[in-house]
Each structure stands twice: as structure tokens, then as C-alpha cells.
Amino acid sequence: MYFNIKGKDVAIKSSLKEYNLELEENEHMHLEEDSTGDKIPVPNGYVGSKVAGENEIDTGYVIYEGEGEVNDENVEEAQKTRKQYVWIPVLDVSTMYGIDENGKKWGKTYSFAVSSNYDESTGAIPLNWSENNGIMKIEDKTGYREPDIVTNNENTQYDMDSKLKNLEIGEETTHEFLIQLERDFNNMLESVEKYGGFYIGRYETVI
Fold first, then answer.
1. Where do the domains of the chain lie?
2. What's the CA gap between 69 and 41, in Å, rounded?
3. How far is CA 70 from CA 38, 44, 67, 83, 193, in A?
């Protein structure tokens, strides 16, 4: 798979075969193959595209809502009427998170601006974090970081506990909400590591 970063094509190694992931079908997903024979986990209720340019991991493997086949003859109609997602391979989950000196997992955020520590192989630089001997450090505790919550800024004080109660999302205090965020984050990492990637919406949603 290639991404164009600052006018340069950056190759992202994406073949699953070389990593021998032991993917097995379960009650939530089944396995399909892309045009090169790589196995792809597909959520039940969705089907992988058979259209050239949509059926290979290296060019973006697309799945469509429903069980009817999507091929060259019906792809235009399917693109208008069915939800679509694209498989994003992540073969090294450590690129997504690190562990600080206290054992807490933090998400690794990136910037794609060219600078002194710009990595030409990935097209990215760390955003608000560094890593030394496997220990991750958040450079600015008020800067970009996840998972975390924002309780105030320079101009406004928030009573977040009251706001959470009004939202009725199940958590009533900032501490409970943070625990939920961290739990969801850790579950996401486990899933990405198990399946070798994740799906995102094919098109931007504008509300």
C-alpha cells in the first residue's frame, strides 16, 4: 500500500502471508481472500469486493454491507447504496502505542510535516512523545495524547462530572470515564494485533 506524503510515495508493507497470522473464523467474522491470496478477516454481514482496484490489500481492500457479490457489473450501484469500509493493515502494533515507566499504555500520535527528525521510510514523526529503550514518554501532558480526558483549558473551567451525568453515557465521573477510555483503547489494540489491522469508513462523513 502506498501513501503520498509531501509529494513522495511511501510504501507500507502490508502482506499478511509473511507474518503467519493464525486467523480463524468466529461468530463475528469470516475469512475471504484478496486477489493475491492473502486472507482477510471480514465482519459477518459484509462481503469483500471483486472489483479490480478494490480487492487487494496493497491497493485498499474494500468490503460492502450485505452478502450480495460486488463485481464490475454492479459496483456503481453498490457504491451508491451500500456502506463501505477499507482494510488498514497494521502488522506491527507497536507503531500504535507505547508503555511509559509506570506501565500505562499511550497511543502514538504522528505528524506528517517534514522536519529534522522526519522518517522518510514512514513519512511521519512522533507528535508529543518519544521512546527510549522501550519506554515511552509523553513530552507535554497538556498536549496531544490518548487515551485521556480534557477537564479544563486556560480560559474555561468545566464541571465534567455534571456534564457526564447529563450526557447519560453510563459513566458519571471523569475517573470512571477515563477508565472506560483506557479499557476500550486496550481492547482495540488486542483486536488489531489479533487480526493484523482494522477497518475504517471508505468515505468521510460530513454532519
1. 2-89, 93-195
2. 16
3. 19, 15, 9, 12, 28
Name the E strands within 59-192: 62-65, 84-89, 97-99, 105-107, 110-111, 125-126, 129-132, 135-138
- What residue type is 139 in one-letter code? E
Give the cell for residue 117: 527528525
How does DSSP classify residue 54? Answer: T
Least Cα distance to 18 among 89, 96, 121 occurs for 89
Beta strand segments in 112-155, E? 125-126, 129-132, 135-138
Range list of H helices, 45-173? 75-81, 160-167
Contact 95, 121 (CB under 8 A): no
CB 69, CB 51: distance < 8 Å: no
Structural contact between residues 19 and 40, judged by C-beta atoms closer than 8 angstroms? no
pLDDT tens over the chain, length 207 residues? 444 444 444 444 455 555 556 788 899 999 999 999 999 999 999 999 999 999 999 889 999 999 999 999 999 999 999 999 999 998 889 999 999 999 999 999 988 776 666 666 666 889 999 999 999 999 998 889 999 876 655 545 556 667 766 777 677 777 888 888 899 999 999 999 999 999 999 987 666
